[in-house]
Amino acid sequence: MTVPIDVRALGKVAVLMGGRSAEREVSLMSGQGVLQALRGAGVDAHPFDPAQQPLCELARQGFARAFIALHGRWGEDGTVQGALELLGIPYTGSGVQACAVAIDKTLTKRLWQAEGLPTPAWRRVDSAAATRAALQALGAPMIVKPAREGSTIGLTKVTAPDQCEAAYRLAAQHDLEVLCEQFIAGDEVTCAVLGSGASARALPLIRIVAPGGDYDYHAKYFSDDTRYLIPSGLPAEEEATIQALVLRAYRTLGCRGWARADIMVDAATRQPYLLEINTAPGMTSHSLVPMAARAAGIDYPTLCLQLLAQATLDNPAPAGTEAAA
């Protein structure tokens, strides 16, 4: 049974949106959706763009909580979370360490591999020559992408050696650390998780069918041709296996509140492979977490309220003390 949320007890809420990352446009879309939903539910919610005013204004303006609708760097990489910790303002989603780890795809892979969780073979590269060597080692096709950006930012699917230099240069425009990853041919699915620790639960899987099989930035956020299948159409046992895998991946990184993992299921072996996990998923009209929540009986305003009600700090100030503003 769901406990009703007292919106008055939530206090004055900042919806952090926009920011300075490559995903600013999408963040503004997410933030507006969250803002409207919270206001519609009676929450005293206000937009706050860190690119337009310093975060210290959150304390000066008397905000009691923050809903993080920022994506990518300076939003889901632990930096904003760290600032909110210093300000003593509880926030939605994962804490500093989990965010800092999850934004870094190579570090995430190392931790998952250490726990025996399946993820595609990969190489970290620092030049076009190293990218060509990675292609020889991993085989074609191969994915080349920045290690610390959104899942479709600066990404190239390489099928031949003469594409390696351009692919590396594109990825390196976004991050000095570039990741080459084995391409897994098969079903692309995503799995959202809500909650923390032992109480975390996986939502129904969504199978993504993009035009031409390329789920790029446009297909992800703006195309009406991309199909999102929920129910996923996968066998029930296979879906349950993937959900259990994602919960292990979520807990391994220490995530809390919510997140969304991307997975490829090998067409030949049906082995699922973890690609990455997003600790501040999109909340736009095309976004996948609201879609999965709806399939689980949670509408968009309720989802926003539940996430906000779980806002917390890694290190709450002891009773009787105040955080420095």
Automatic annotation (TrEMBL):
SUPFAM superfamilies: Glutathione synthetase ATP-binding domain-like, PreATP-grasp domain. Pathway: Cell wall biogenesis; peptidoglycan biosynthesis. Mg(2+) 2 binds at residues 276, 278. The active site is at 23, 151, 287. HAMAP family: Dala_Dala_lig (MF_00047). Its cofactor is Mg(2+); Mn(2+). It comes from the Bacteria. Binds 2 magnesium or manganese ions per subunit. It comes from Tepidimonas aquatica. GO terms for cellular component: cytosol. InterPro entries: ATP-grasp, ATP_grasp_subdomain_1, D-Ala_lig_Van_CS, D_ala_D_ala, Dala_Dala_lig_C, Dala_Dala_lig_N, PreATP-grasp_dom_sf. Cell wall formation. One of its GO terms (biological process) is regulation of cell shape. Residues 109-309 form the ATP-grasp domain. This is D-alanine--D-alanine ligase. Its EC number is 6.3.2.4. It holds the Pfam family Dala_Dala_lig_C.
